[in-house]
Design a protein that fits this description.
The complex is a heterodimer of chains A (489) and B (185). With 489 residues, chain A is mainly alpha-helical. Chain A is 66% helix and 0% strand. The chains are: A mainly alpha (489), B alpha+beta (185). Chains A and B meet through helix 2, helix 6, helix 8 and helix 16 of A and helix 1, strand 2, helix 2, helix 3 and helix 4 of B.
Chain lengths: 489, 185
């Protein structure tokens, strides 16, 4: 054993507390440099151009499809009686669900003091915003007459009528718009100190103006940090129940109705777990190429990826459990229509969609029990893509199978998507990736200030200091507060 | 604002700025400035430094009360909106259900509460921090550009009643690891 004590100590430390959150050798300045360089380089990597080109074309396709829909009406889609909700609501639930992982990382993991979130929360929050943009589009266009959208909001209008507040669809309007606004505030507020960093490094007048304007004159004052941190905590505490409420309300769209296969009390928790599951898969899908292209492997380490795969495994298992319980309750209820709804899902005309869903959501993520696969980039990418496909099909199965065959066989039907349905779905991915790629190019994609606060440099290492964590009890308080802060509000 | 002091070049003096290289030196320095009795002073750091609030003697912010009040207001606003629109102004008959029944009104009430409280947290933080404020004398210092990168600062303003160019400079210079400079108004 030739290992000296000096080498053995960090190894022991690593075993106790896990791998370091920021790779060794990074300093405060190097973190600033690593993140800011990405937006300061005159040209992004070639892969970015390719990805942006494809995404922008698909986003164009989306706008063309929406334009066509508005000109022609919803008849261009495959929906009809009895399947009045097809791809539109499937896409809505899919996208709004994707967003939830971002709020989980930024708010819930913050409240639980999960420090590993700092490297990835900015990504995840950006993903939330762009996913909600895509989500909001679908209910807006599926109403057919998008130009009277404002009827959904409590705005006095020419009909002298108000919205019906007892409808889950209206709850959705409030839940999703509140979610959008709160996520945007949280994302932007978190970014203010980092925009100030970019402002202070800016060399061109345009950059100085742009980053200077949006950083609002932030100067890292501790009196400001004090209120900023309080506001951040409060927003996290508000966003946590909000995110749970949003997908619960989305599930009410189904659960509050009487349609067999929808009318189930398990829907709210089941939808929330599924949303976080799909969202984490999307975070992985976005983060793996980004850290590759922009040299962020020291900040977003294998440990971060592995933690996320564990959450995918856990939430994937919850989703699997929810599928089983749904089937069990359908059988246990003794209700013939309810039983038929589930046997029809598994063995009816949409069985292929059901089994795609089960394989992608329940079976494949179980591979993450193996540490080797949790740390393998190809395996992560493969499973992340599979989960996204699976989660889309979950919503498709819930919506389409239940509507196509409900109580009376005389009113059954079959849903087939049209080319407009398919192009709109594809286009929504284009819009999402276009917005995300712009974010990667122009904004600080890692929360610089937050990463610094979990680095060794942020800790106090004086002799008198003992104990871990954020509170440093060795700092003497003022005996009397006669010099207290006169500007404290 | 204050014409009492000037810099070496004769420009009005905003205050003195001390630069530190690490967190420990900053915290030590902040305690000494606090105990010397200054009030118009501040520390500037690239990330929130825990323990600095105590070292500076900052009183706890009242932001939480504002957010709570906004949340309570949101509850009543959400409730009032639903009750007035669906019961008073245009009673809407939906399958013979009551016009106003609390369970059906909870989701919207909750969302409005969160919306108001979150907006208050964001706007209140900015207002209490006196932001946006796009111009500040400290931005004239070249060193200060690193306050958002990897350096730590203490600034004492000339409008502080205890400020005296010599004595204050002597205090700051005596702090471990401090590099002191004047900042003009």
């Amino acid at each position: 054993m030739s290992r000296s004590t000096a080498e053995a100590v960090p190894a022991l430390d690593e075993r106790i507390r896990g791998e370091p959150l920021v790779a060794q050798g990074e300093t405060l300045a190097s973190v600033t440099e690593t993140v800011c360089r990405i937006v300061e380089k005159p040209h992004p990597p070639r892969a970015w151009y390719v990805a942006f080109g494809i995404s922008a074309m698909l986003a164009g396709l989306l706008f063309a499809m929406v334009g066509y829909l508005l000109l022609e009406g919803t008849g261009v889609w495959g929906i009809n009686v009895p399947v009045g909700w097809g791809f539109d609501i499937t896409n809505f639930v899919f996208w709004v669900g994707i967003g939830h992982a971002g709020t989980l990382i930024s708010a819930i993991l913050f409240l639980f003091r999960q420090k590993w979130r700092t490297s990835i929360n900015r990504f995840a929050e950006a993903m939330t915003i762009f996913a909600v943009v895509c989500a909001g589009l679908f209910p807006a266009i599926h109403v057919g007459r998008a130009w009277v959208e404002y009827w959904m909001f409590p705005i006095p209008n020419n009909l002298s009528m108000w919205p019906n507040f007892r409808s889950p669809l209206l709850w959705d309007v409030f839940a999703v718009s509140t979610y959008m606004i709160v996520s945007l505030l949280f994302w932007y507020m978190g970014m203010i100190p980092d925009l100030a960093t970019l402002r202070d490094r800016a060399r061109t007048p345009l950059r100085r103006f742009f980053y200077g304007f949006f950083s609002l004159g932030w100067r890292g004052s501790n009196r400001q940090w004090h209120r900023y941190e309080r506001a951040y905590l409060l927003l996290a505490a508000l966003a946590t129940p909000l995110v749970l409420s949003v997908h619960s309300v989305v599930s009410f769209d189904f659960a509050v109705s009487l349609v067999p296969g929808w009318h189930a009390t398990i829907f709210p928790p089941y939808f929330v777990a599924g949303a976080i599951f799909g969202g984490f898969a999307m975070v992985l899908l976005l983060i793996v190429p980004s850290r590759e292209w922009f040299g962020l492997k020291n900040l977003i380490t294998m440990r971060h990826l592995e933690n996320m795969t564990k959450i995918v495994l856990a939430t994937g298992s919850m989703v699997g459990y929810a599928y089983l319980i749904e089937i069990f309750i359908a059988w246990y209820s003794g209700n013939a229509v309810e039983r038929f709804a589930f046997s029809n899902r598994a063995f009816g005309p949409y069985a292929w969609a059901f089994w795609t869903m089960v394989s992608c959501n329940v079976l494949l993520p179980q591979l993450f029990w193996f540490k080797r696969l949790r740390r393998s980039i190809p395996a992560i990418l493969f499973i992340a893509v599979a989960v996204n496909i699976g989660m889309w099909f979950e919503r498709y199965v819930i919506i389409v199978t239940s509507l196509s065959r409900d109580f009376l066989p005389s009113s059954w039907g079959h849903f087939t998507p049209t080319w407009v349905d398919l192009c709109t779905l594809l286009g929504s991915f284009g819009l999402f990736f276009t917005l995300f790629l712009l974010f990667l190019r122009f904004l600080p994609i890692v929360a610089i200030a937050e990463v610094k606060s979990v680095m060794p440099d942020a800790k106090l290492d004086r002799d008198v200091h003992h104990g871990q964590g954020d509170y440093h009890g060795d700092i003497p308080r003022q005996h009397e507060r006669q010099f207290g802060d006169p500007e404290a509000d | 604002m204050n014409g009492r002091w000037t810099t070496a070049d004769g420009a009005p003096l905003f205050g003195l700025l001390a630069e530190f290289e690490d967190v420990d030196a900053l915290i030590e320095g902040a305690q000494k400035v606090r105990d010397a009795g200054y009030t118009k002073w501040d520390a500037h750091t690239p990330f929130p430094v825990h323990g600095l609030d105590d070292a500076m003697g900052i009183r706890h912010t009242k932001l939480s009360y504002l957010v709570f009040a906004a949340g309570v207001f949101g509850v009543f606003a959400g409730l009032g909106l639903q009750w007035w629109t669906n019961t008073v102004d245009y009673p809407l008959i939906i399958s013979g259900k009551p016009f106003f029944a609390l369970p059906a009104n909870i989701p919207v009430l909750f969302e409005v509460m969160v919306l108001f409280a979150a907006a208050a947290a964001f706007v209140g933080m900015l207002a209490f921090n006196n932001l946006p404020l796009w111009y500040h004398s400290l931005f004239k210092s070249r060193r200060f550009l690193r306050a958002t990168d990897d350096r730590f600062f203490i600034s004492i303003e000339a409008r502080d009643p205890k400020f005296d160019p010599r004595a204050t400079r002597a205090l700051l210079t005596s702090l471990r690891g401090a590099a002191v400079e004047e900042v003009e108004e």
